[in-house]
Amino acid sequence: DAGHSVILHNIKGEELTKIAGYCSFYHIEPWTPFTWEIDFLNLCADKDEQAEDTKIRTLAESFSKVPEEFFDKAGISVVEALIRSVVKSNKKNGKVEATLKNIVNTWHSFNVDESEVLIDTTDIAKVKKAIQQESKQLRMINDFLKKWFPTSSMYIDPKNEKTSLCVLASVVEIVRKFESLSKFWNENAIDPKTKEKRVFDIKQWVHTKNDRKVIVISNSNQFGDVANSYISAFINLTTTQLIDSNYKPVKEVHFIL
Fold first, then answer.
1. What distance in Å separates the CA atoms of residue 36 and residue 97, rounded to the nearest whole number?
2. Cα end-to-end distance, the chain, whole Å
3. What distance in Å separates the CA atoms of residue 59 and residue 234, rounded to the nearest whole number?
């Protein structure tokens, strides 16, 4: 023991079996009952606005595929604006009173027809139809971006419809992961006794010596995209907590990935 704690990546299930009889642990596996919800938005929240925006960027990037193309990078910036709007609009006394579901709802408020966005952009007829149908939505999103993340407004430009549609397709991919994760937690992160949401606070965990020694984050072949994204976000944002200049360690935290 010696005051050490571990964040363990459970890849095949063997890791969970090995530690089950050894120590107490938090098990995070969104698609199974009695899991814990990760409070990602409060992991991003920070008194320092620049630090907060950096963490928000980290969250958006973690839920995107490796940004190899312009459209992927642009999509991340648009999602960053969505997260900023929810975090900054729902903060009371430094705590964010919102979840990933609020981000999904903000996106859906634009009424983007995803079937029109996710099209073959080499099909001229489909592109023209999509542009005609989504022109109002492009203007709404552009106005939203100008408010919450002005530099990202260049990516959704009503005057450059085809490029904007491609960017929206990247946004849809990320928001769908948020939506899936939110649904998993709304169904499974429920305490069987109190019937209340079981929310895991990593900020409290890293600052508490006498807590469960291990956090187990489980992967999945069935839900690979969502699994890889939430694990990446959790590790990246937890790392920012541990390397923060204001953090005063009360225990050694080890990553076994």
1. 17
2. 19
3. 9
| Burial (Cβ within 10 Å: 0-12, 13-18, ≥19) of residue 4 | exposed
Q: What 3-state class would DSSP assign to 102? A: helix
Q: What is the pLDDT along the chain (257 residues), one digit of tens a residue?
A: 566 889 999 887 777 777 877 788 899 999 999 999 999 999 999 999 999 999 999 999 999 977 667 888 999 999 999 999 999 999 999 899 999 999 999 999 998 876 655 555 555 666 666 666 667 888 899 999 999 999 999 999 878 877 888 888 899 999 999 999 999 999 999 998 998 999 998 988 988 888 898 999 999 989 999 999 999 999 999 999 888 888 888 888 889 88
Tell me how far apart the alpha carbons of residues 251 and 206 are, in angstroms, rounded to a whole number.
Answer: 8
How far is the CA of 104 from the CAs of 86, 176, 217, in angstroms?
A: 10, 8, 23
What is the token pair recorded at 171? 């946004």
Classified as helix, coil or strand, 254 is strand
Query: What is d(CA 21, CA 198) in angstroms, rounded to the nearest whole number?
Result: 22
The three state secondary structure string of 132-156 is HHHHHHHHHHHHHHHHHCHHHHHHC
As a whole number of angstroms, the distance between CA 200 and CA 36 comes to: 6
Residue indicated by tokens 């009952």: 33
Closest CA to 177 of 232, 217, 137: 232
CA dihedral over 211, 58, 182, 84, signed as positive or negative: positive
Q: Please return the burial class of 19, using the count of CB atoms within 10 Å of its CB with bins 0-12, 13-18 and 19+.
A: middle
- With contact defined as beta carbons under 8 Å apart, do 226 and 181 qualify? yes
